[in-house]
Amino acid sequence: MRPRRRQEPSCGRGGMNPFRYVKATSPADALARMGRNPGARFVAGGTTLLDLMKLGVETPDVLIDINHLGLDGITEDRHGLHIGAHVSNTDLAEHDSVKKKWPVMSQAILAGASTQLRNMATVGGNLLQGNRCGYFRDVAMPCNRRDPGTGCGALGEQPGVEGINRYCAVLGTSPSCIAAHPSDMCVALVAVDAKVKISSPAFDRLERAEDFFRLPGDTPQIQTRLGPDELITGIELPELPAGARSMYLKVRDRTSYAYALTSAAVVLTLDAKGRIDHARVALGGVGSVPWRSHEAENALLSSPPTEEAFRAAAEAAFAGAVPYQYNGFKIALGQDTLVRVLNELVRPGAGERP
């Protein structure tokens, strides 16, 4: 199939795509406005959306400001932590309860971006963070996620397209898309079994973070289970088991403001005999979605916390990995990343919550 080139949008070099800006006064008002304007987009921190508008990837005709809906609070009860969708990444990462009880969350957010971006970015927006694949962000290039049917440029199957895929995924990919999910925070959300609170005109619902993200399959343009008439209003962090240890580690090309080559978020507990009796493992930088590794968890359960057990779990985590031309190194690097986190967590006093 010959790749189609998307027509240069009017906001391309030297132009601007016109749009209207309106402020919503409540979640119901925001949803009603979206219902009347199918080409609209919600905007909060705007750290992804505005970039994509400048590139011509997003061309909304209406921006609906949802910053003043009263969704910026953090409350705690016996069930866990309740976080409004408009809480900034900085406020969540620096929250005393998060640092004390869910350190994996704080570590992931702090690893995710510069201070300036964290101050603007919201936790709800982070869940919908735009794809960082270069082919997605270049409107002259083929990308099934941006323009279905044009092909996956990262695979390099189209004439004249090299297929640079060093940062792409090795888990959960499909012939339609091999882009890696970019978020750090979402990897930690999967590890702690967080839930996403979603509102629609009909009802509110909770979706597990693990289930919120969709594998690319044949429809990579559909990235989450959020419907067109729905709005993220919050996130819920459940209480972790007593004595749980948690940690997030990110490996990247440089130490500041870079996306993960690999990352790992782990929550585990040890029983009275010193064996692992609870484990949640999530991987970043290597999956098309924030990747929960049931294989690694199963390998860890009832095992002693030894290098041998950790290496077996890491190998199980990547047993189904599919490398591409430039990213095969991610398999060994991802295994080493997970093993390092596990070794760190079983050190006395490491990553414990009360």
Automatic annotation (TrEMBL):
Keywords for the protein's UniProt record, in alphabetical order: FAD, Flavoprotein
Keyword Nucleus: no
GO molecular function: FAD binding; oxidoreductase activity
FAD-binding PCMH-type domain ranges (all copies): 14-242
Protein source organism: Skermanella aerolata
Claim: Flavoprotein is one of the keywords in the record: yes
Upper taxonomic lineage: Bacteria, Pseudomonadati, Pseudomonadota, Alphaproteobacteria, Rhodospirillales
Protein's recorded name: FAD-binding molybdopterin dehydrogenase
InterPro entries: CO_DH_flav_C (IPR005107), CO_DH_flav_C_dom_sf (IPR036683), Diverse_Substr_Oxidored (IPR051312), FAD-bd_PCMH (IPR016166), FAD-bd_PCMH-like_sf (IPR036318), FAD-bd_PCMH_sub1 (IPR016167), FAD-bd_PCMH_sub2 (IPR016169), Mopterin_DH_FAD-bd (IPR002346)
Signal peptide: none
